[in-house]
Design brief:
The protein contains eleven helices and nine strands. By secondary structure, it is of the alpha+beta class. The protein has one domain. The strands form three sheets. It has a four-stranded antiparallel beta sheet. A three-stranded antiparallel beta sheet has the order 1-2-3, covered by helices on one side. A two-stranded antiparallel ribbon has the order 4-5. The termini are close together. Helix 6 runs antiparallel to helix 11. It is globular, with a radius of gyration of 19 Å.
Length: 302
């Protein structure tokens, strides 16, 4: 399976920190900044200053804050743009079980998304449009931001999925959430749903799971579901309150080629899938073209 990697594939995440560098950007920083500019051309442009991200309104932000992050929680809560791009997203199917804290896309520099999509619920709502979901079938619509061409990208996803056989199309037949201004559970960080740039799908129960559904001991030291595992859901879990039933993730979520076809279509159009996170959320797709930016700087495709 052809696999596209983020331009920053050479970044080393294991240390979860950056060395104290000079102001001059490294080659990998420059490559990553180019990925941002290519992914968001309506907002960003090339800067003459190394290590800076330039907005089209003339403001410039440092790519790297040069702050050592003590642990993964701090990386999530106090990231910079470099941190946001520090974990390569493994596009394609099948995929390897993620290593500990390998969550490409969960690290988000929130001011970046607020500046593009809107800093308040009202500002985000002004940019929402209705997207026909699987237009040849149920005739549903979902609300999605038009900023950065995200709604157009989601429309292309819907049209392509709509052409799949019925037994595969059913995996995406039921959208269960797009825009909602809210923090991620038990955090103060905004979800990408807050910007109208994420969609959740109700997958077949054998493929659907979310790491927070598991008991507290498992959440403290989560283990990505492996082949044959099907943990039971605790009473009052997100599975029950959101979908009205208890769900678990056995091996099919890792090996189901029908699910894989859905995932690859989303990735083709600039979306990442939460099922490839160590802290997994198999319902979740979000528009993150910077993590899927194709570039000759990537080297040979894998």
């Amino acid at each position: 399976m052809r696999t596209t990697w983020l331009c920053l594939a050479c970044s080393v995440f294991a240390s979860m920190s950056h060395p104290q560098e000079s102001i001059a950007s490294t080659d990998s920083d420059a490559s990553a900044i180019r990925c941002l500019v290519e992914a968001y051309p309506g907002f960003l442009e090339s800067s003459e200053h190394p290590g800076m991200v330039r907005w089209k309104d003339g403001t410039e932000w440092p790519f790297d804050d040069h702050v050592n992050k003590r642990d993964f929680d701090e990386l999530l809560s106090r990231p910079c743009l470099k941190d946001q791009l520090s974990i390569p997203y493994p596009a394609g199917w099948p995929f390897a079980v993620p290593g500990a804290n390998s969550d490409p896309g969960r690290i988000r520099y929130e001011p970046f998304f607020r500046k593009m999509y809107g800093d308040t619920p009202e500002a985000v709502k002004k940019e929402l449009v209705n997207v026909s979901w699987l237009p040849g079938g149920e005739g549903k619509t979902v609300s999605f931001t038009k900023v950065n061409g995200a709604a157009e990208a989601l429309s292309r996803v819907a049209q392509e999925i709509d052409r799949l056989p019925a037994d595969t199309r059913r995996y995406a037949a039921t959208p269960i959430g797009t825009f909602k201004w809210r923090p991620i559970a038990e955090t103060q960080r905004l979800s990408m749903h807050s910007f109208g740039a994420a969609i959740d799908l109700e997958l077949p129960k054998e493929c659907q799971d979310y790491w927070e559904w598991h008991d507290k001991a498992a959440r403290a030291h989560p283990t990505y579901p492996r082949e044959g595992e099907a943990p039971a859901e605790p009473e009052g879990s997100r599975a029950e309150t959101r979908l009205g039933r208890s769900l678990a993730l056995p091996k099919q979520a890792l090996t189901d080629d029908k699910l894989g076809r859905i995932v690859c279509i989303f990735e083709k159009h600039g979306f990442i899938w939460g099922g490839k996170w160590y802290h997994f959320d198999t319902m979740h797709f979000e528009y993150r073209p910077e993590l899927l930016a194709a570039s000759t700087a990537n080297g040979p495709e894998r």
